[in-house]
Structures are given as structure tokens and as C-alpha cells.
Amino acid sequence: MKKTSLKRIISGSLATFLAALTVTTNAYAEEAQTLPEKYDLRDYGYVTPVKNQDPWGTCWSFSAIASVETSILSELGYTYEEYPLDLSERHLAWFSLNPIPEDSGHSQAGEGIYNMSGHQMTGATQYLATTLYGTNIGPLYEQTVPYNGIDENGNPSRSPNADWSVDEELRSFYNYVLQNSNVLPSTATYDQDGNYTFDEQALEDLKAELMAGRGISISFCADSYLPGQTEKNARYINTDTWAHFTYEKVGVNHGVTIIGWDDNYPKENFLSEIIDDEGNPVSVPQPEGDGAWIVKNSWGCTDYDKDNPNYRDWGYEGSGYFYLSYYDRTITNLETFDFDVESTDTATGILAYDYLPSFSAKSSMGFNDGSAIRYANVFNPKEDVNLFEISFETNNLNTVTDVSIYLLDKGYENPEEGELICERSYTFDYPGFHRVSLGEEYFIPKGKLVSIVVHQHTDVYTAVLPVKLIENQAYYEFAVANGIDMPLYGKAVVNEGESFVMYDDAWHDWATEDEGDGILVHILGALVDYRDCDNHSIKAYVRKPEQDPTPGESTDIPEDDKPGTDPEPGESTDIPEDDEPGDTTAPDENPNIDGTNPPTGVKTSGVIGVVLSFGIAAAALIRRRK
Fold it and tell me: In which band, very low, low, confident or very high, does the pLDDT at 389 lie, cut at 50, 70 and 90?
């Protein structure tokens, strides 16, 4: 039987390439729990105060941070009053939209998003948070990087003319460790002809996430996208009841956070008539049924003194909240975050290549022809380490990820030409970022390379190849020349010997797959010159070994270092003088908020590509309340 090459399959069926991920209902979700008619995370104290994003279009950063703060409080079992958690939106926004400096010495120097908007901070999407937090770039406390610039007199200022830049040394600091993110299905689904359908199961899935204590970061189409913009003659929001319903399929322009629901919220509270541009009354449709999400905005509220920059009379009773119909046609980009709040993550190094922030849940290509496609990253730690965790990303529902880890010698022919030291398999219901334990620690001696080989498959596809694409500088220059507004572009740095892909019974270096007869040429066609594709999203988490076992030999994780346990307060791991990464002390070594925080030391990730370094972190004694 004649064998058909993978490239021929790709060229003949580009429909299999999922240019933008559409998440559908999880058909294999656990049986739905009994859900109340109304639920509000504020009733449990897990929601932090409303803030004001003014003067920037950073709603996406505030949306993500609000979701993260609620998740962490829920995981800790503390109310906001007990633990006034406040994380930095500015840290997230700045490092999402500024690349790794070219002169940094980083293996991926120059990689990242280039902000060409003319503004220090600008609009983007909440998905950027996943990329940053997945590489231990934040989150940091607000008091370390507050939401303000510095004026010409050296004073804090909310003026857009102030200097809002963030010290580059703070890029690799973080206070909490991202363990998982879930990219969730939308209730608003469309077929190929653009016909709308309400997804009832997605409604149940979103409610289940809220009941798990997670705020849901979303995008939708608002009447305005900045605080202070007028809502006079609003098209979608009723400012008498603060009830919003976008009744048509239009582009999204705003990010907010869902923190609850009310099944009985009346559909009559939504607009039935608007005033058009000529001043004439026009009837508009109301939702098909009752029910609305309770939504936290980032345009301020009246809980503050009037001279506070977070003060603004907006939302229901000035609270900064509004109601969003279940049946809104534009709800999208839904994501929740799950942080490992019990991990001290002391002296942990990260081996990674994928630092390019992603504007969407990443694209992927699925195969159901029996293809044995696999992909891999090969890392070269510069000193003896123990490998104990890895992370990867999934782009489809109910994805099985099979992982094989090999020890390689220099001069290896392919990522599987070595000693197989570990095999694991993981299944996740939702797409997203997943950091997982190997269950044991594996000793990797200096001079050896380690490859992590991944095969992903679902009930639909026998193999899935995730790709992270972004419009590059060439496309930006094309757009500018043709009068197209394009405020951002991205650059991926993919060096030879870092990432690989297996197809047609051979391994190929990912660095050259966008040229010649490479797989990306077949996927993108004429667009290949206008897109950058990043390394595979596979990371390894390592720490200094306490002993020197045989290479590849697994070692029991010491009881004090197992997940869910903590070393003694202040315990750290010494590192050789010539391997120290420099100053590992943040401006606030232990930034307790009003002295009431559980002690959580500022940590550094040692994120310098394969030139591994270790940051030293103060131990945290945080326990989830039962």
C-alpha cells in the first residue's frame, strides 16, 4: 500500500488546520452537580475590590488579574478581609507587550510582542497572562509594581504622560505558581454559516468553574471600551438597570470577569429600544430568556474616596458591577486560572524556549489518519539538576498527552536517540496550560541533554500538533504600507537544536520548518513570510540535587519537598558562586499587605533559557483552610 506523506495530507486538506480555536462543550464532563439558581463569589469573600484601569486600554490585564486573585483566595481559603490580596496589572501589561531585551544574554533574546501603538500600554487579550505566568513571569504584588507611572518630579501619577515602564529586573519575579489554566466553552456558538446557537451545556460548565472558586476572565462587545467614554445612546447596555445584552455578532472590545450568576434575572431589564445616530427610536431584541452573569468591571466604583484614582460612579448602585445576559452573542476568550498556593517552589529553575505571548488559545492541527506525529524540546542544563515537573499546553477538549523523557548525549541524531528514563500520560478536560508532577525526581548530570517528547491525541484526532503563530514585523510593515492600523506585532526566536517535530517517519528541526519544504510552509502557504511560529510549549522544572545518583535514576522526593508540604520558613538552597543569577532580592522581600498576609516570599524563576540559574525564594507557610 502506497504511503501518503504528512505534507501531502496538509496541502490537500488545510481545513484540518484550526486557525483559531473554538472550544465546544465537553461531552465527557462529569455529571452536572446540582446548581443553585443564584451564586455570587462575593458572598464567600473571594472577590477583590473593583479597580480602575484608566488611562490605558488594559481591561484585559485587569480581567485576568481579577480572575487570578479570586482563584488564589479561594485556594487559600481566605476572604479578602483576612488576606487583602492585590496583584499587579501593570507588571502583567508591561512584560506582555515588551520583548526580552536583545542585549539580555537570554537564549531567546528579542522574542516577544513589540508595541507600535504609540502608547506605553494598550489593548490585547487575557490569554497573554497564561504565557507570562506559565514561565514564572509574575504575578507580583501590587505594591511591588503599582498601577501608576512616575512623573517628571519623581512622583506617582496616573497621567498617560508619566513614565509607566517597569524595571527589567522584575521580569522574572513572581509570588505565586500557575498550575493550570482552563480555556472554557462559550455559550455563544456559531455554525459555518454564522447561525447562532445557545450552548446549554456550556452554561453548566461555566457555573461549575465558578462554584470551584474561580472567577472567569472573558471578552465581549461593550458600548465603550475605556472608562470615561460616554454611554449616552447606548446600543447594548441599559444604564437604568445596568443590564447588558449584545444581540448581534460583532467584534469584542472589552475584558471583564464573571464572578456569579442569577438564573432569574429578568430579560425585561435589558434594552428593548435604542436611539440611533439620527436621534430616532429603534426597537432592538431582548434576550430569549431570563438569566444573567454577575460581572466585575475595571472602570472604578464609589467604594473609594472621591480623590482616589479608583473612584468612579459606574455600575449597579455605583458598585462597578453589571449584569450580562446568558444569551449575549459575543462572549468569548473565557479562561480560569488555578494556582498552586501551597508550593514554596524554592530554588527552582525553569527550562523553556516559548516566551512569545499568545493572543489566543493556541492554534493546532489535528490528524485522524493514524499519523504518529510527535513533537519535542531538547534542553541542555548547565549544571547537575533534578527534573521533577514539566508543563505543556493543550488546545482541544479531552486531550490525552503522552510524555516520554530521554537522556541524550551531545551529537544525538534525534530526540528519541537516548536512554528512556520516564514515561507518563495525562488527560485534561479543557484546553489550557498544565504544569504536572512526574511523581519522582530524575537526576540529569551536567554534560547530558534531556529531551521531552510529546504525543497528544483526542477522541477526534489520533495526533494533534499545537502551533503558536503571530503576525510578524514583515506583516506589520505590509499593514502600515497599506494603511492598516496594526498596533502590535510579534517575534519568535527559534534556534536550531531546541524544538523538533516528527512526521513522515523522520524528526525535523522546528527552526527550519518555515522554509523550503517545511511543514509550516505547507500549513501557511503564502502567509509563511508574514507569521512567526514559536517553539513548542514544553517546559521542564528542575532543582539542585541533594545527592548524585546514577544519571536518569529516579529519586524519592524528600517528604518535606512533596507537593502540599513546605520546608522551614526562610529555608533556601545554596548555589555555586559562579552560577548565581545576580541580585535575587525584589524591592519588597516579603511584601505583606498591611502586615496581614500569610508570609509569601518573592521568588525568582531563573528563566534564562537553557542557561540555567536558580533564584532563591523565601519559604511560604500557606495552608488551605478546610
Answer: very high
Give the Cα separation of 423 and 454 in Å (integer). Answer: 10
pLDDT digits (tens, 9 = 90+) for 410-457: 899 999 999 999 999 999 999 999 999 999 999 999 999 999 999 999
Tell me how far apart the alpha carbons of residues 255 and 247 are, in angstroms, rounded to a whole number.
Answer: 18
Strands 243-244 and 321-325: parallel
Write out pLDDT tens, residues 128-142: 999 999 999 999 999
Mean pLDDT of the region 453-474: 93
**What are the distances in angstroms from CA 531 to CA 318, 478, 491, 499, 524?**
44, 12, 9, 18, 8
Sign of the Cα torsion 362, 350, 105, 551 reads negative
From residue 88, alpha-carbon distances to 151, 160, 548, 624 in Å are: 19, 18, 40, 23
Greater model confidence, 618 or 197: 197
**Is 449 buried (19+), middle (13-18) or exposed (0-12) by CB count in 10 A?**
buried
The CA distance from 90 to 473, in Å, is 25
DSSP annotation of 20: S
Q: How far apart are CA 351 and CA 366, in angstroms?
A: 27
- Amino acid identity for residue 459 in this structure: D
Beta strand spans in 161-305 (E): 173-174, 178-183, 188-190, 196-198, 216-220, 237-238, 243-244, 254-262, 273-275, 281-283, 292-296
DSSP structure class, residue 123: -
Closest by CA to 52, choosing from 309, 251, 259, is 309
Check residue 362 and report its DSSP letter: P
Dihedral angle, C-alpha 581, 91, 259, 214, nearest 10 ° = -10
**DSSP three-state, residue 524:** helix
Instruction: Give the integer Cα–Cα distance in Å for 296 and 260.
Output: 9
Q: What residues contact 205, with CB distance under 8 A and at least 6 apart?
A: 25, 26, 29, 184, 185
CA angle at residue 18 from 12 to 20, to 5 degrees?
A: 145
Q: Which of helix, strand or coil describes residue 96? A: helix
Q: Is 289 exposed, middle or buried (0-12, 13-18, 19+ CB in 10 A)?
A: exposed
User: What pTM does this model have?
Assistant: 0.85
Query: Phi/psi of residue 170, each to 5°?
Result: -90, 0
Task: Check residues 365 and 175 and name the one with the higher pLDDT.
Answer: 175
Residue 229 neighbours by CB under 8 Å, 6+ apart: none
Beta carbons within 10 angstroms of residue 541's beta carbon: 24
Residue with cell 472602570: 299
How confident is the model at residue 548, as a pLDDT? 54
| Cell numbers given for 318 | 455605583
Q: Who has greater pLDDT, 625 or 82?
A: 82
